[in-house]
Structure formats: structure tokens, C-alpha cells
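explain this.
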Amino acid sequence: MKNIIALFVLLALAITTNAQQPAPPRPPMGQGPRDGRFMGRGGRGGNKEKIEMFKIQFITEKLALTTSEAEQFWPVYESHKKATQEIIANKSTDEIQLQEAMLNARKKFKNDLKPVLKTDERVNEALKVDREFLKKVRFEMMRRKGFQS
């Protein structure tokens, strides 16, 4: 039954992704308000959605999540993401307090993941996968802008 629900969720995501209107043409680099930015406050919202979908796919494949693990993993991941965003939004001027709060959030995330992923190796991989994803996105952004070394 869970597999059927997961299949319908993925199907719904695929349909909504394909049903989006094409983005308007961008002005050439250096002309217009975006000036070639990949995404951001002034960028197109579609890029953020595409990156989020790619992130879900990347993390699911990297951690080799089963359907039942994915159903348990993503709510834990999203709560950790929200907690991290709240810490950053409410960051104090004391750098040590900020780092302690972030460390405590990661420790809680690790403890919450243990029942889902079962082994310490998979939990540690889950803690690293965000950094790896960001590295991959940065590399792709630089490659598309022509800064590849």
C-alpha cells in the first residue's frame, strides 16, 4: 500500500513539474536585473524548484533509500532544515552560540536519523550528503558560467 502511495506522489510531482509554463527568455549577461545569477531573490522561481527536485533525487540515490526509508527520512530532513533556518534567522552576534546551536541541531538530526537508516555508516553518509550536494551545485554553476578550470 505504501508503495502505491509513494508511486502516486512521485507521479503527481512529475505531472506538476511538466505542467509548468516555460520561463520567459532571459536578457543577455550583464543586461537586466538578474545579471546572470543562477538563482536568488531576483532569479526565476523555477530554478529553485528544479534544484529542490534534483536534491531529493540526489540524496535518495546517494543514500540508497528504500520507499519506506524515504517516507520516514524526508520529514526528519525537513524538520532539521527548518530548525537550521530558524537558527540562522535568529542568529545572535555571538559566533560561539551560533555554532553551538548548529551543532546541537546536527546532533538531534543524527539521533533522529538513527532509527530510520539503522547503521552509523548510513547516518554519517546522510550528514555528509548535503555538503556534497552543495559542492555539486556550485561546480555546475561555475561550469555554466565558464569558470571551469
Summary: The first helix runs from residue 2 to 18. Confidence is low (pLDDT under 50) at residues 29-42. Residues 2-145 form one domain.
